[in-house]
Task: inverse folding
């Protein structure tokens, strides 16, 4: 069965409390064999304890699949990008290097790329991903657009991201402040430096919205 068309995966980084419950729950999924496919990243460890849950964004045109020379990564018709297939993955790490969101991880012990598949065994039956079932703060939510609008009236979901000249649309939605303006994250400028003044980043605006700064 496909993932229901009216169900979406929402990430609200402003609500993440860094409890690691999602990481633990993911590792306990029957199909993950003790490996967690979600991880937490610190937004700015020096300035704030704020963490960000990182899952596969399930891109409409997944770069990981495009650069795979072994055709080991598939996107199903319902928009879910699957983890690499063991019989075909050659552990070249092309997908790890190519993903703009930094999601795929190479399990060297198994010579296999593994990443979040949105708990396809569960979501294709209408159930929530494991991480979303245990998140105590609502940072991870699997549901309908009507539900998220009722739960987060001051936020809006975004599924379009820009990396340099590349525009990526994703199946996973990131929640940002409702009135935040769209900005363009230029990765190349970030790598080599730019004389242009820094523009606020929409995703980071969402993360740092009304958070205390620890100094």
Result:
């Amino acid at each position: 069965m496909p993932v229901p068309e009216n169900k979406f995966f929402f990430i609200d980084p402003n609500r993440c409390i860094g409890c690691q419950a999602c990481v633990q729950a993911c590792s306990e999924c029957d199909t993950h064999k003790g490996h967690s496919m979600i991880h937490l990243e610190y937004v700015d460890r020096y300035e704030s304890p704020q963490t960000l849950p990182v899952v596969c964004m399930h891109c409409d045109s997944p770069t990981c699949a495009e650069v795979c020379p072994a055709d080991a990564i598939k996107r199903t018709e319902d928009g879910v990008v699957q983890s690499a297939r063991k019989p075909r993955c050659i552990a070249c790490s092309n997908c790890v290097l190519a993903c703009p969101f930094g999601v795929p991880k190479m399990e060297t012990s198994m010579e296999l790329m593994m990443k979040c598949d949105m708990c396809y065994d569960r979501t294709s039956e209408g159930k929530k991903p494991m991480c979303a079932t245990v998140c105590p703060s609502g940072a991870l939510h699997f549901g309908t657009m009507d539900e998220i609008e009722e739960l987060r009236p001051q936020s809006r979901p975004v599924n379009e991201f820009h990396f340099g000249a590349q525009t990526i649309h994703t199946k996973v939605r990131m929640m940002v402040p409702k009135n935040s303006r769209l900005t363009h994250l230029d990765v190349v400028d970030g790598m080599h430096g730019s004389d242009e003044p820094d523009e606020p980043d929409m995703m980071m605006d969402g993360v740092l919205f009304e958070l205390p700064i620890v100094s």
